[in-house]
């Protein structure tokens, strides 16, 4: 006889009669020692940049950092700014940009990498521009949210702009 565990593992029907997927186990997708990794390419368009941010927020939710947590908000902002820069300043026709986010549970930290195909132009100093200037605040924001950030050439072409963000405890405990 099957034992009842109280956990739902198969599809269930909601109040509207629609099938819901089974709930994901808490902290889904992490290794036993607390590491997780997301790696994906996105089209070099504003829509691709938005999709990158949403994809990362969803993945952090699986790792135990819901969209209202400080960690998720910080990572989402950093990814949004770096992705916007890859699309605006690092776009090469026909090339995607690439996002990688690693969660390192034991160090309580996220490492974010956004790669594009252009090396001729690179990120410039992260200072606050004059008040009446509309652009130029993205890297300043990254500087505020990240414990460190930088960029390096990427093999075979382009560059990787990276940032590290403190994770804090995941919702529901480590
Ligand atoms: N991925 C990138 N590729 C090339 N240049 C970049 C990249 N990211 C940033 N930069 C350079 O650094 C500058 C500052 O970036 P940022 O602070 O985000 O301001 P903004 O994007 O509004 O110009 C950009 O104007 C651009 O010259
Ligand atoms: Mg920018």
TrEMBL record:
Name this protein carries in UniProt: Regulatory protein
Residue ranges with Polar residues bias: 7-17
Every Histidine kinase/HSP90-like ATPase domain range: 42-162
CDD domains, per the entry: HATPase_RsbW-like (cd16936)
Keyword annotations from UniProtKB, A to Z: Kinase, Serine/threonine-protein kinase, Transferase
Pfam families per the UniProt record, alphabetical: HATPase_c_2
Domain of life: Bacteria
Record's keyword annotation contains Transferase: yes
Region Disordered: start-end pairs: 1-28
Keyword Transferase carried by entry: yes
């Amino acid at each position: 006889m099957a034992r009842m565990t109280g956990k739902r593992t198969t599809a269930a029907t909601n109040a509207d009669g629609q099938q819901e997927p089974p709930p994901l186990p808490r902290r889904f997708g992490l290794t036993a020692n607390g590491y997780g990794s997301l790696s994906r390419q996105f089209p070099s368009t504003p829509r691709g940049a938005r999709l990158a941010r949403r994809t990362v927020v969803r993945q952090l939710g699986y790792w135990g950092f819901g969209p209202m947590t400080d960690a998720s908000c910080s990572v989402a902002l950093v990814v949004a700014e770096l992705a916007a820069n890859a699309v605006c300043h690092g776009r090469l026709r026909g090339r995607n940009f690439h996002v990688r986010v690693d969660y390192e549970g034991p160090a309580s930290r996220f490492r974010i990498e956004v790669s594009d195909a252009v090396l001729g132009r690179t990120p410039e100093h992260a200072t606050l521009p004059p008040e009446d200037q509309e652009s130029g605040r993205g890297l300043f924001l990254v500087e505020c949210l990240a414990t460190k950030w930088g960029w390096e050439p990427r093999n075979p072409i382009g560059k990787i702009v990276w940032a590290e963000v403190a994770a804090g405890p995941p919702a529901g405990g480590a």
